[in-house]
């Protein structure tokens, strides 16, 4: 499992995201608005919107908030106008980082992201400098006890590409278009999961030393705390002990 997936799971367990729920809902609304504006308000024919709605539901975002965001995106276009931007860079130990941005002020977003990278020992790269090190995939994390044979049968029959165990967790990898069918199959089989989302999966990973790892995780968290940053992906592999210690 990628280091970033482990880090996100550990923070969820410790409730690190609860205090920032308002900011999270704002980001989720923004993603829904843009998806509905670009691809229409019907999630059955707009996969990007369907994924954005599901992610909002997973975060326990109220139904009314979701519906308002869809309506705003499918409306006349008045109000906020968001632009999608991709920033690529490097963190401590040369870790490759990708930031997906939705912003109403590109200059502000660029300045903020550059400042965060520099402050935490990283640097912005040029477009395409690190994206080639990642593949777009669906990732489902199953956390806890589960029957291996049942999990394999259900996930593979539904179209999963790969299933791997890492400690007490399983990671199911799918093609982007197969994420929702595999998730639905797990739901039907009564198999719970910690998360299910589209992600950028690194082809290779970097294992920083503990000092660099702590600095790197501060960089990742600072980026994720920025209002314009929707997702952050990185190719680090840090031991679970260090991740737990930093999260604590």
How is this structure best described in words?
The protein is of the alpha+beta class. It is built from nine helices and eight strands. The protein has helices spanning 3-13, 21-39, 47-58, 63-74, 106-119, 148-157, 179-188, 210-225, 240-247; strands at 83-90, 96-103, 123-124, 134-143, 162-166, 169-174, 195-202, 229-234. Strands 3-1-2-8 form a four-stranded antiparallel sheet. Strand 1 (83-90) and strand 2 (96-103) form a beta hairpin. The radius of gyration is 18 Å and the shape is globular.
Average predicted local confidence, pLDDT: 87
Class based on secondary structure composition and strand pairing: alpha+beta
Unreliable segments (pLDDT under 50, ≥5 consecutive)?
Answer: none
Distance between the termini: 21 Å
Q: How much of the polypeptide forms β-strand, as a percent range?
A: 15-25%
Strand elements, count: 8
Oligomeric description of these chains:
single chain
Helix content: 40-55%
List SSEs in N-to-C order. HHHHEEHEEHEEHEHEH
What would the principal axes of the Cα set say about the shape?
globular
Largest sheet: 4 strands, antiparallel
How many helical elements?
9
Quick recap:
The chain has 248 residues and is α+β, with helices and mostly antiparallel strands.
Present the secondary structure layout.
Blueprint: H1 3-13, H2 21-39, H3 47-58, H4 63-74, E1 83-90, E2 96-103, H5 106-119, E3 123-124, E4 134-143, H6 148-157, E5 162-166, E6 169-174, H7 179-188, E7 195-202, H8 210-225, E8 229-234, H9 240-247
Antiparallel strand pairs: 1-2, 1-3, 2-8, 4-6, 4-7, 5-6
